[in-house]
Specification:
single chain, 408 residues, Rossmann fold, 2 domains, 14 helices, elongated, binds cytidine-5'-monophosphate
Length: 408
């Protein structure tokens, strides 16, 4: 539990992943995958089959992981001389990417004739595979039978995707992109504190048109809202993200509804709100819009002009005021008197939880500090990447949400 008025330490446990590479052109994508996994705080130990070494260099993986790459069953560098046992003992999970049709067949039948297949057989941790192969190899009944066997043995199969292939054909069998795999692996490691919950999140700025080419907006990048949507998904929630105009990729397996103005966002939230258990309003909704807009570009005259503004609907206040409101979480970006303003806002909008930060530190940045305000008081989350901050927030939401439910 996050306790009252205390700076949290939140030291994530180191997570160790054995990344196994087998022979396939998609092996080039693993260099980027390693970078993303390590950015997310994972320790990565690469293990390569001899076929993998033909597609990507050992030196590349060694430089990126900062560890010697293991390729031989009886590696003299492993103290006990039993890399297959040592590695599976130390790993929290094994990911095979790319997983060739041949390697999948070996896994399905328990063949252990090299280091990687042996350590998969000797493992006592979860195994994930990211298949990569030609369309016809993928469609072959033998491959599909082998994958069914792996699934029924509890192995997680990630992808593949569909698209252009190295052989010149188009179809199923492309290994997922590095960022998709990195997201799935991170998600795999997160506790499922929101399993079965439906969450609606708003993110980004809104854009209020004045004329055909001009409008009112703000500096929100959408990074925090997207991180919250991603963290909720990692925690097992079913997530809908209503997003203002931003330049960010949609989080994997999150439904994104794109909107422009505050009124569009309000309409989308009303439409999607019906089934939400939790509503997290991260968007920096413009407080005002132009009272009248022009379809043409307004001409310059050299005279002063006055722009009349009308207030926008307060989407969060609307949600929190519903007869049966979802669990509502607000965000507040303040430039001064953070604590007083944030707590006053939480009470005015009748929110069980509000996350506040200093606008000048948070807007557009990849990191921020957050202070959470709830009925128990104030909880400081020291500066961290927004991805990590969003996970901490999701943990706190899950705790408060469970407590808000009537006893069974
Ligand atoms: O009052 P203020 O704009 O600072 O409140 C911030 C919170 O209210 C945020 O969670 C924001 O998403 C939400 N909000 C809203 N609709 C508005 C203005 C703010 O949902 N028109």
């Amino acid at each position: 539990m996050i306790s009252r008025d205390r700076t949290e330490t939140f030291l994530p446990q180191p997570r160790c992943l054995v990344l196994g590479l087998t022979g396939g052109v998609a092996a080039y994508k693993t260099a980027e995958l390693v970078r993303l996994l390590m950015q997310d705080g994972l320790e990565v130990q690469a293990v390569m089959t001899s076929a993998a070494c033909r597609f990507v260099g050992v030196a590349t993986l060694q430089a990126l992981t900062g560890k010697p790459v293991l390729t031989e069953l009886w590696d003299p560098g492993v103290p006990t001389g039993m890399a297959h046992i040592d590695l599976s003992r130390n790993a929290n999970a094994i990911l095979i990417a790319p997983a060739s049709a041949d390697f999948i067949a070996k896994l399905a039948h328990g063949v252990a004739d090299d280091l990687l297949s042996t350590l998969c057989l000797a493992r006592d941790c979860p195994l994930l595979v990211a298949p990569a192969m030609n369309r016809q190899m993928w469609e072959n009944a033998a491959t599909q039978r082998n994958l069914d066997m792996l699934r029924s043995d509890g192995v997680t199969v990630l992808g593949p995707g569909s698209g252009a292939q190295a052989c010149g054909e188009t179809g199923m069998g492309r290994m997922l992109e590095a960022h998709e795999l990195a997201e799935m692996v991170s998600s795999f490691f997160q506790p499922k504190v929101l399993r079965g919950k439906r969450m609606l999140v708003t993110a980004g700025p809104t854009y209020e048109a004045i004329d055909a080419v001009r409008g009112i907006t703000n500096l929100s990048s959408g990074k925090m809202g997207y991180a919250v949507a991603r963290a909720a998904r990692e925690a097992g929630a079913d997530v809908i993200l209503v997003s203002g105009p931003v330049c960010l990729p949609a989080p994997a397996t999150v439904r994104v509804v794109r909107v422009i103005s505050a009124e569009d966002m309000f309409a989308a939230v009303q439409k999607e709100m019906g089934h939400a258990d939790i509503f997290v309003s991260v968007a920096a909704v413009a407080d005002y819009r132009a009272k009248s807009t022009s379809k043409q570009k307004t001409k310059k005259t050299g005279h002063e002009i006055t722009l009349e503004l009308a207030p926008n609907p307060d989407i969060l206040e609307y949600a929190a005021g519903l007869p049966l409101p979802p669990f509502c979480v607000g965000f507040a970006a303040e430039t001064e008197d953070l604590e007083e303003n944030a707590e006053a806002k939480r009470r005015k909008k009748k929110l069980p939880l509000l996350a506040a930060n200093l606008a000048q530190d948070a807007i557009g940045s990849d990191e921020c500090a957050l202070t959470l305000f709830d009925e128990a008081g104030r909880h400081h989350l020291p500066k961290a990447p927004k991805s990590e901050q969003a996970r901490r927030l999701i943990d706190h939401i899950a705790l408060l949400y469970d407590r808000s439910l009537p006893p069974p």
